Amino acid sequence: MNSGSVACVQSVKNPVKAARQVMEKSVHSLLVGEGAEEFLQGLEESEKPMRAEYFQTDVRRRELTAKLSTGNASKNNHPQKVGAVALDRWCRLAAATSTGGLVGKWKGQVGDTAVVGAGIFADDKLAVTCSGDGDVFLRHTVAQKVASLYHHKGYSLRAACREVMSENLKGSCAGIIAVDAKGNAVVETNVGTVIMWLSSLPTLIHLDSQF
Questions:
Q1: Which region holds residue 171: left if phi is over 0, alpha if psi is between -120 and 50, else beta?
Q2: pLDDT of residue 45
Q3: pLDDT tens-digit profile of 85-130?
Q4: Per-residue pLDDT tens digits for 33-68
Q5: Which of 29, 97, 114, 178 would staple 83 via disulfide (CB 3.0–4.6 Å)?
Q6: What is the largest CA-CA distance in the chain?
Q7: Phi, psi of 16 (to 5 degrees)
Q8: Do the Cβ atoms of 73 and 111 come closer than 8 Å?
Q9: How far apart are CA 164 and CA 65, in angstroms?
Q10: 3-state secondary structure string across the chain
Q11: What is the set of domains in the chain, with CATH numbers?
């Protein structure tokens, strides 16, 4: 397994690209904050840093206004996490995910997205990525639990995802997508709306947007 992650970055346009650069061009697996941005800007092919306005949307502004008026960060913000799992023709597996996190979260908070075994996992047998409350996924090492049931308990990929959802994610909005080396693909969620796409070149299929 090889991995790379960035967290608490403020000017990185493409966090997944940045994470891959950490994986391929540093000796570390996770870089955070100013250190991550300094490393990325020091690369020969570095991208131009983006101003804060680039990342702002009307939806997130409204959520921040609501948070400031109540004093609480909602655990059910407008969906904004993106995740992907992939299996190529040589049976190599990969996972990637990116998120802006909860609106109004505490400065310095790192969620599950950047932590292998919590919100993301991939090896030579399966790839998993998750969406939901990052603190819950961190506490329960959700992606690792899916992998463990699949590897060591004989669960099918779907059964492993469902078991982890049932046992660890009750009361929390959550979703898991996964694929294994046999080509089995799984989407499990306990929320009402998920936008999914399946690509098998040269075809791109919009699977579903409602459950």
A1: left
A2: 84
A3: 999 989 999 999 999 877 878 889 999 999 999 999 999 999 999 9
A4: 999 999 999 998 888 888 888 888 888 888 888 878
A5: 97
A6: 52
A7: -65, -40
A8: no
A9: 34
A10: CCCCEEECCCCCCCHHHHHHHHHHHCCCCEEEHHHHHHHHHCCCCCCCCCCHHHHCCHHHHHHHHHHHHHCCCCCCCCCCCEEEEEECCCCCEEEEEECCCCCCCCCCCCCCCCCECCCEEECCCEEEEEEECHHHHHHHCHHHHHHHHHHHCCCCHHHHHHHHHHHHCCCCCEEEEEEECCCCEEEEECCCCCCEEEEECCEEEEEECCC
A11: 82-208 (3.60.20.30)
Tokens describing residue 134 = 């990052």
- Nearest Cα neighbor of 95 from 31, 18, 178 is 178
CA dist 28 and 40 (Å) reads 13
Looking from the CA of 34 toward its CB, the CA atoms found within 13 Å total 0
Total number of residues shown for the chain: 211
Quick one: tokens of 59?
């939806």
Q: How far apart are CA 16 and CA 97, in angstroms?
A: 7
**Encoded tokens for 102:** 């909860």
